[in-house]
Amino acid sequence: MNKKITGRFAPSPSGRMHLGNVLCALLSWLSARSQNGRCLLRIEDLDQMRCPRSYAALIIDDLHWLGLDWDTIEMPPNIPLLEGISSNICLSAYQSDRTPIYLRYEALLQQKNLLYPCFCSRAELHAANAPHLSDGRVVYSGKCRDLSLPQIRKLSQTRGAATRVRVPDKTIPFLDGCMGAYTENLAQECGDFIIRRSDGVFAYQLAVTVDDGLMGVTEVVRGNDLIGSTARQIWLHQQFGFVPPKFYHIPLLLAPDGRRLSKRDEDLDLGILRTRMTPQQLTGTLAYAAGLLPQYHPVAPHDLIPLFHWDLVKKQNLLLPDLFR
Ligand code: GLU
Questions:
Q1: At 150, is the pLDDT very low, low, confident or very high (cuts 50, 70, 90)?
Q2: Which of 43, 73, 121, 225 could form a disulfide with 132 if both were Cys (CB 3.0 to 4.6 A apart)?
């Protein structure tokens, strides 16, 4: 096995996987396995109210049914920041177990004087979830950026604060493996962003970066609606001294009527699909829709490994065939 290549699939278990999630799992897995690399499964359950372990168990079972297998997370080599944190925590694939690690990396940003408390309400509530494009994006106004200590003390008496990180006026360029050259200016297009909610729950952006860094992830494959998070994550990787992974933002699967799939589309979730088709039929259909097969035929994920290549993967959003209705 080539340990230098490490991919991952990082679902949020807020419901059963839909077909877009399955395509993402399949392509992450194929990309790593076709290079003889490792492939990790990480459960992004920071928001434990929305992501109970029972849902995670269903996702794990669905992936097993499909025929995808995963490697175990290994101890990161000699990271001083992790001294004193038990190996149980470092090896856990559940983000909800990893809070002590995130605390250390939050402290690192604090040492660099990059953090400040933010008392602005509501917008922070969803910070633990990955911000998919349809959620909309607002550049933070910077309202709490320069509060004085007395102002902070006064505001703290009435409400808890989220924690924001100060971003530089810096353009972050990267070459996406699917979408090509991409740039984002952090200050102008994103603004200071939340790394911890006021209820103490760490935000997706911090957790995903720390985990990808510590787990040695070299390639991230995910839906193209998350491309807007990538510049933030590359910048955080740099702050933490990690080498940023290569990113592949894959096309979204759209329902036959052009709608974006969501976990609310229960007719397309794995619970229903497992009663209608075999894993090979499902894999064959997704592989065909994504451009990996010239014609549909049932196939097991393992049989796609020798023919996988990113050049084959279609770059435009993919319309699901009617057979899924
Ligand atoms: N957990 C995120 C989601 O399911 C994906 C995050 C990522 O791949 O970076 O939407």
A1: very high
A2: 225
